[in-house]
Specification:
2 domains; Aspartate Aminotransferase, domain 2; Aspartate Aminotransferase, domain 1; two-stranded parallel ribbon; binds (2S)-2-hydroxybutanedioic acid; 7-stranded mixed sheet; 13% strand
């Protein structure tokens, strides 16, 4: 039996990580996987996380199981961080999951359970693992237009036209902020139009929010999500703590299922618990506990927010410096979109051949669709990258 297994396609982002490690050149630049790095190229443990870990080490007296949905202090803390009370808490069922990916997986599984014929609509393009998990779970999906390859901005007209064709009961997956892989995002008025169409069509929004605080700030980045849940009767939200708390390997995320009225919440909660039990039983607790400690303590929370803001500003500074260097080198403003994009990524619009050329000639590693991780840059690599982009003729 096991000998009949066939090779699975490798994840393109993770494959790039391996290639980068194996490249012996000293002058190489990793703009692949979405991990924040400071100017020294280090992914730091955030100060508030270290403080919470020390405190936890001193005070934790047991490692026995938590609940199937994780600790309510974590799920409640994350609900408030993302939703800020725009819907009553008694309409929100929530369960901790292994990372944001775990939350996405559980959300898809929930859709399959609630409505096996529902189609899930994803942006074109979207995070490749969305597609991979949908295929793995054998869930039907379609793409709606999202990114205009010419302007490198949101193709909002195309998006609306496609969303007007979704069927009642279909699920529309939206990126809450910091769109991955493009970096092009909806404005709040655009979110409002999207919410209106979803309601007209009877479609259910699912929001993947993995970068809250990396775009325009912790509140601004949740504004679209908050508008959706306050105007649509039902919604699902998959939120990740990997990036904004910098706890990637701790696998900390949460899935929220928002019901039209509180009488339905207990059944949704029971279903989330059931799905956790079937897929992995209890969710990981360490990262979730650190997050809940930070969110419950004013001083720790203020320190976490201050450091997150430093990270956000450093990514913004990288964007502006790269756009300026490209303006200087090319004598045109056609890369101005890099400073307009938000979050960790920008898709710069290079062809797959140009991406390979930048890797082979200049040691620059970006995903094949020309998504680059802005946080992987510093003053020196900005110059190297700008030269490479101009050199290969993007
Ligand atoms: C990414 O898109 O690079 C991140 O979300 C990491 C991952 O798991 O792919």
């Amino acid at each position: 039996m096991l000998q009949d297994l066939t090779p699975q396609p490798k994840d393109k982002i993770l494959m790039l990580m391996e290639m980068f490690k194996e490249d012996p050149r000293e002058q190489k630049v990793d703009l692949g996987v979405g991990v924040y790095k400071n100017a020294q190229g280090v992914t730091p443990v955030m100060r508030a996380i270290k403080t919470a870990e020390e405190h936890l080490w001193e005070t934790e007296t047991t490692k026995t199981y938590t609940g199937l949905a994780g600790d309510p202090a974590f799920t409640g803390g994350m609900r408030d961080l993302v939703l800020d009370g725009v819907v009553p808490a008694d309409r929100v069922a929530a369960a901790a999951t292994p990372g944001g990916t775990g939350a996405v997986h559980q959300a898809f599984d929930l859709v399959r359970m609630a409505s096996p014929e529902a189609r899930i609509w994803v942006s074109d393009p979207t995070w490749p693992n969305h597609l991979s998990i949908l295929k793995h779970l054998d869930i039907p999906f379609s793409a709606y237009r999202y990114f205009d390859n010419e302007t490198r901005a949101v193709d909002f007209e195309g998006m609306l036209a496609d969303l007007k064709t979704v069927n009642a009961g279909d699920v529309v997956l939206l990126h809450g902020c910091c769109h991955n892989p493009t970096g092009a995002n909806l404005t709040l008025p655009q979110w409002k139009e999207v919410a209106q169409i979803l309601n007209e069509r009877g479609a259910i929004p699912m929001i993947d929010i993995a970068y809250q605080g990396f775009g325009d700030g912790i509140e601004a980045d949740a504004a679209g999500t908050r508008h959706i849940v306050s105007t649509c009767p039902e919604a699902m939200i998959a939120a990740s703590c990997s990036k904004n708390f910098g706890i990637y390997r701790e696998r900390t995320g949460v899935l929220m299922a928002i019901q039209p009225d509180a009488s339905k919440t207990a059944t949704a909660q029971g279903t989330l618990n059931h799905l956790n039990r079937q897929n992995f039983s209890f969710p990981p607790d360490h990262g979730a506990r650190l997050v809940s400690m930070i969110l419950a303590d004013d001083a720790l929370k203020a320190d976490w927010m201050a450091e997150l803001e430093e990270m956000r500003k450093s990514m913004l500074a990288n964007r502006e410096a790269l756009a300026a260097e490209l303006r200087r080198l090319t004598g045109s403003d056609r890369f101005g979109f890099i400073a307009q994009h938000r979050g960790m990524f920008s898709r710069i619009g290079a062809t797959p051949e140009q991406v390979v050329e930048m890797r082979e000639k200049h040691g620059i590693y970006m995903v094949g669709d020309s998504r680059m991780n802005i946080a992987g840059l510093n003053d020196e690599s900005i110059r190297v990258l700008a030269k490479a982009i101009a050199d290969v003729g993007v």
